[in-house]
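Ticket #4471: structure output looks truncated?

Reporter: J.K.
Steps to reproduce: submitted the chain below (278 residues) through the standard prediction queue, then opened the result file.
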Amino acid sequence: MNYAFRNNHFERIDHLDINNRGFLYGDGFFDTMLILDGNPTFWEDRIDRAKQTLKYLQIEQNFSFDDMATSLKLLVREENHKAARARLTFIREGEGKYLPKANECRVYLSIENLNRNYFNESSAKQTNFSRMKVPIDRSGNFKLINKHHQVLAALEAKERELDDLIMVNTDDDVCETVSGNVYIINNDRVVTPPLTSGCLDGIIRRTLIKNQWCEEKSISISDARAAEAVFLTSSIAGVVQLRMQGQKHSKNQILEDVKNNLENLLISSARDLPENQQ
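Returned output as attached by the reporter:
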């Protein structure tokens, strides 16, 4: 179901105007999250990233995130969504061509019910390196609507009969995967590419860094090939181990510890909203 955020609450809508700037120019961004026990997960980090993205795109914040959280919680409880996948889409509102005539924001919500109360349990995904190169640009740090690199890489993965692909940047450094941030484990250290690689400033990535479960460092293709373990993270799947094409799958205790610790944080993040958002 789809909703628009108007007058400080979400209202159901039957269709979207195809003349909106998100459709015409990709002028906006989005955030996908898990809803658990009627609460959004890692909400404070999502607010922070959304505010940074609004500033980057020079879109005016003409709404309250506190009101949005309250309305979202009421909505998912009314619809009896104990566990759900929610996508918030932020679009610059108004007319204009490339030069917008206004900079106010319109927010849309879509919700999909899930039959689980945790990250998606998943076996190791078979992967390799994409032929596509991601540009080294700050725009890659934000979850912008325009995701054609990921779309084309996903089509490449399907063509090569792989589950996912590791994407490298124009310096041939590891950047991210099609579906999330990427990490390697070597010598008891968990490493993820820095934001300067052009990777997404992912919410789960933020959580791992904040809790000192990983460090930022450039990763070469040879580093990834020689790693003891490789995994990805996303807000929906959590931690998913990656298996390089042609290699055997083996469990890694550090990866399992990260997965278990993150699962506990996921649950607590859905219960730790500030009082004015409860």
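Triage note (M.O.): checked the attachment and the full token line is present. The chain has two domains: 2-113, 125-268.
Status: closed, working as intended.
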